[in-house]
Design brief:
The complex is a heterotrimer of chains A (296), B (399) and C (275). Chain B has eleven helices and 20 strands. Chain B has 399 residues and is α+β, with helices and mostly antiparallel strands. Chain B folds into two domains: 220 residues, Rossmann fold (3-Layer(aba) Sandwich); 132 residues, Beta Barrel (OB fold (Dihydrolipoamide Acetyltransferase, E2P)), CATH 2.40.50. The longest helix of chain C has 33 residues. Chain C is globular, with a radius of gyration of 23 Å. Classes of the chains: A mainly alpha (296), B alpha+beta (399), C mainly alpha (275). Chains A and C meet through helix 1, helix 3, helix 4, helix 5 and helix 7 of A and helix 1, helix 4, helix 5, helix 6 and helix 12 of C.
Chain lengths: 296, 399, 275
Amino acid sequence: MNNETKKQTILGYLFLIPSLAVFAVFMFYPLLYTFYLSFFEWNMVKPVKKFVGLNNYIAVFRDPNTFKILGNTLAYILVLLVLNFVLPYILSFILSAVIRHGKSFYKAVFFLPSVISLVVGSILYTWILNPISGPVAIILGKFGIQMPFWSKTDGWVIAVLCIITTWKTFGYNFINILAGVSGVSQEVIEAARLDQVPMWKIFLDIIVPMSSATGIYVFITTIVQGLQYVFTPIKVITQGGPNYASSNLIYASYHEAFTLYRTGTSSAISILTMLLFIVLLLLEFKFVEKGVYYEN
Amino acid sequence: MNNIVFEHVVKAYGKNVIVNDLNMEIREGERLILLGPSGCGKSTTLRMIAGLEDITSGSLHMRGQVVNNVACGDRGVSMVFQNYALFPHMTVKNNIIYGLKAHKMEAAEINRRLEEVLEILQLKGLEDRKPKDLSGGQRQRVALARAVVKRSDYFLLDEPLSNLDAQLRLRARKELVKIHEMYRPTMVYVTHDQIEAMTVGQRVAIMYRGNMEMLDTPSHVYNMPASIFCARFIGSPSMNIISCQYENGNLSIGDQMIRLAPMWRPIADACPSGKYCVGIRPEHIVLSSRPTETSICGTVKYVEDYGNRYGVYIDVKGEKSELIAICNDSVPRPGENIFMNIDFRKLHLFDAQSEKSLGYPEEIRRLNAALDFSMPDAQNKNQKTGGKYHESFGQYQCV
Amino acid sequence: MKTNNHSEIGWHMILGAIVFLMLVPIVFALSNSFKTLQDAFNTIFEIIPSHPTLENYRHVFEKLPFVQITLNTFLIAASVTIFKTITSLFAAYSFVYFDYKGKQFFYFIMLSTMFIPFTVTMIPNYLMISKLGLRDCIWGVALPQFADVLGIFLLRQAMRGIPKALIEAARMEGIGSLKIMRDIILPLVRPSILTTGIIFFINSWNEYVWPVLILKSKENYTLSLALQMYISAEGGTEFTIAMAVSVITMIIPLALYLIFQRYIINTFAASGVKG
């Protein structure tokens, strides 16, 4: 190793160490510790942790509520994907191909709720969608429609919590996808138009494949971040209720740990959640990072 | 001695060899051009001198010392980058003196040098502009100023003119030579442009696929190329290279045979592989409608008009590739039969297998040496280099 | 490009509807925070209150140590922002401008933390904060937020946009890495640093999980926790006060966004994953 290489190595690590240290303390060590805890029965207070092997995992799968929660998680994923992935994809195509005026206005307004706390969002929507005295209920009432008590109704509760989360995350996803969609060469689109290809076909056959790197990235973050974002409205508005109808994997893990004080089950659930995300991560690296990594 | 010596220098990324066993000496105070097509390793060679690239093996000497492990900032080298690498957030003035200030040079000295380079490079009045407010030519001069102001012993330039248009390039070329003449640092200049190489360089190193093909004066590079690659790379249109047979002093091209001049015979006889290529530059083919003893016959295929002269494409019977000849007047018509007269003083012979030159007869060497007035005189380094440049500098003497 | 004007107008209407949906909650909060409770229920569709009142805001500052709560939120957000911006800057610089073994590996594992759900680190971090005696203390809320790859990612993308030759030119002058960072990199990535800092600040300002877990007493509350006191799924009697707290909570992020909107959007648009 010559001097230059040595210097680069030393300085490189020196600059990296502060970040690496915090990551080690607040990310990697906790990750290992949670994995460890998932094999023990404990309540955060008892002096002794009881080793139970895989029992926590078995208990999770034996619990009938788990399947309800898994079903909810899937429902959240589907609704969030429609609202936070499909919709912004189509709209960003519209904005880049059809709209000529007001682009930056739309971008700015769509992004605006992203900076507002989801607790604020939860409170505002609780009132706006209040089934008795909220403005939406009053308007619907004028048409003779009675608004469901959504926070107490299976199905509705997930839909509304997703809408609240979407209010916050839509803009961020939109900006990301728009960057990918705008990256598609105008010439390709123009060539297709000269051949009189209809717009929806241009979108599906040209835009989606050519912006797929961004697309997959947003697809995955919608799931990974979306499930975590939706935690806040769940915690603030429903606490997972009614009868687990709005709980998802993230909330369930929190609930086990800090309401029921069962660190073992909580850890088992969060490790399982992470496994789900790791599968997505592998997809991400397979499709997206390839381009980023070998660019230079 | 501010020279640079490469001893068996190799640069490789894994198995990918960029520079292969490079040996050369760059002499103190000379203008050496590294010339070659893109990817030939010329920029890497320059960056090794600068200290921006590690050396995989071999040793690089500067001032008589091995500098393999000397950091780039400590080599006393200044460099002009291809895209100038001006700091976009700094004014022209700060761009130029940033390095001096960082080394805590005395303010008065900084100012003196700044004034001087601003004057020389005609940047007066632009000191407080940002690079984005400058024209391409001005930016190039700021980059030059930033390198000059350091007064380094070594002056490296990486395709410094490639972003300029043709007219500016001509002017900048002269300016570069003028500045070199003022300070006489050891100058290494990378380019892929042969005109730049020929006009700026005192010696030209031609590189190809990581190997140095030839290192000599521009005149020799043109008149006595060391390989087929060098022969074709210098000159436009490229030299005609025709594979041929040689037997008993007779050279057969296509279905025709000419008698090789006696001075060439020992050289041709010494060809190791026994396979020959003959090279002749388009501008050295003399066309006539009548045959001579040393002419070959062909049919004109078509004629290109270059404005000031014509390129004539000629088919020779039995020879696959067509030949190009340059003529200034009396342009033949397509379809016409024509005779190409070969001047043996302007002939090149190559070994078709190794693609190396077979060498040149003593007579031609002497002739070319007499023509070559760009040869730096090793004994009289402090004198101006050669008459070729005096003429063009005339206008700068008053600066 | 020639497009059908009718379809463009149609799409403008759809986009306009989304704009409406995005802005309605904000307008709703602003408007009702200046109404009395009675007015609010009677004139819920009135955007500009006919009898504006500051009563709700006064109430908040009287009932709760609200200055302290705002200050707590600010202190947490500011310390998290400063710490993360500086460490991210160094890490990004290391990833972009130094060559050393293990670099790709460390970038990979740091980037992978985006895929670790917070529930995985929640219990151990909670225990760690408790052990440090930082429960019910604002620094206990700040600490677990220090590990965040977003800034490293954004700043790395920004630095990759700076031509390497600029750094080489400075190195040729014999200038050291820290000085290069100060004189060249920092000024050139200033917009991205600004955006990263603002995003850090806003995210921390809005942080909910850690305050909920760590903070107990009202004088240590952050705005998120103060807000939580005014929620109940069926509504309640403190509707307009809740709106006032909401307005106070969102006013700073909104102001930051409105001032630096162009920077923020450009940074995210430019950092996008482009295959």
